[in-house]
Amino acid sequence: MTGLSNFKRVQNIIRERATNNKILTLISLTFAFILLFTSYMYPNINYSIKIKIIDYSSHIINSIYTPINTFNKSIANIHNIYNTYNINNEIIKENKSLKIISNKMQLLYAENQELKKLLNLPNEISYKFVTTKIISKSNASFIRSVILMSGKKDNISIKSPVVDNNNLLGYISELGNNSSRVIALTDINTKIPAFVPNKNIKIIVSGNNSNFLEISNYIDISSLKSGDKVYSSGEGNMYPSGLFIGTIKIKLEGKIIIEPFSNLNDLNYVQVIDWKPESRGIDIIIDSIYYE
Amino acid sequence: MNIYSYIILNAYKIMPFFIILILSIVSVAPIMPTGLEEIAPLLGVISLTFWILYKPELTGWIPTIVIGIINDVLYGSMLGVSCLAAVIIRIMIIRLIYNREINLMITFICLGLSLIIWLLVNNIFRGLFYPDLYNYYNLIFQFLVSIVISPIVVFFQLFLLKKMSI
């Protein structure tokens, strides 16, 4: 019993010495503030430190991510097998309506090509892409981003748009040699110039750290209806035009939101568009804001 | 005593740091069901609070700062934000437990306060410029989910602490 109380007393002394050092507290707090201030004033230093750490630790992150992801996928597979009958019925119905739409689309496509020929319009810009694996999904209430297992060595450039079958997902915000970070559409710092083709309305789509997007410019959008499709307009030269963003939804209280078509969290692989000006055949200098 | 026995005998000293590190990485892995990813529990913060409470001499200022920096890198936030949050959490816990017996109630009070500090500091720096757009529900739900999950993490780490027997 005495031994135990002595042990506790020694432990308390160690604890007091280790924890109640005011100078160390002050140094740590100052260090944190200096780090924060430096990151704010010199974003390049902040950027290079972060990207170096991600580069070196990408394999460790991947080794922890992969088994958890495999386990999650297995659970999803079991759930799918259990609901096969219901899912199949839904797919049959959807397939019927898609066949009708596909027939209409073929007619419209042919008509569109013919009109383009008549107007002598130049060919659209075609772009290459790199398919890459997601190794971490850093989702929290304050940020929406994922880390990719590809970087400069895979010919990825900063600010490149990230898509999943022509559905816009986000853009490359940090770029290392072996890894890169994608900021999702739904992140509060993402702003995308967009348009609604059937209404000819131009809007700015903004993330708000939820699963939906908001319209952040103040034009008359009362004509928008639930189900209207939103595409990137290509203005600002940051994203290609015509990438599908999502569908308009009107909430019960009348607020208009956009439901993104693809969610980064449901995917394991994404495509990074090669959006460098030279890859698009652009040989003039483009605004440096977008191409550091 | 050779170098290997020295490392093995002193391995317990770096164990808290590695547990916090692994749980921080796990919290950015897909552990939540589809659609609820943004309210994933902050396992790293829960673990950091636990080890500062129970083994402050092993979770000093340097490990706290390093964990903060690693979290900044993992989440992609501005370098120093999580670091500042971690330092504030340590200061708060040290002031709270100074000359006080640690029990489960104190543990959960500290956990709650740490989560509030962490989320507030990160959200202030991230959404500072867009207060109108900000989605505050996710912030509240992430806090609640973290609180609900925390007993599992705490009891798991208490078990580890017993096994460490130091």
By oligomeric state, this entry counts as heterodimer
Q: Strand fraction band of chain A?
A: 25-35%
β-strand percent of chain B reads under 5%
- Rounded mean pLDDT of chain B is 84
- Helicity level of chain A, as a percent range? 25-40%
Note down, in words, how this protein is organized.
The complex is a heterodimer of chains A (292) and B (166). Chain A has 292 residues and is α+β, with helices and mostly antiparallel strands. Among the domains of chain A are: 40 residues; 152 residues, Beta Barrel (Thrombin, subunit H). Chain A is 39% helix and 25% strand. Chain A has 4 helices and 12 strands, in the order ααααββββββββββββ. Chain A has a 6-stranded antiparallel barrel with strand order 1-2-5-4-3-12. In chain A, a hairpin with a 4-residue loop joins β4 and β5. In chain A, α2 crosses α3. Chain A is globular. Chain B has one domain: Arp2/3 complex 21 kDa subunit ARPC3. Helix content of chain B is 72%, strand content 0%. Chain B starts with a helix and ends with a helix. Chain B is globular and about 60 Å long. The longest helix of chain B has 29 residues. With 166 residues, chain B is mainly alpha-helical. In chain B, α4 packs antiparallel against α5. Chains A and B meet through α1, α2, α3, β1 and β2 of A and α2, α4, α5, α6 and α7 of B.
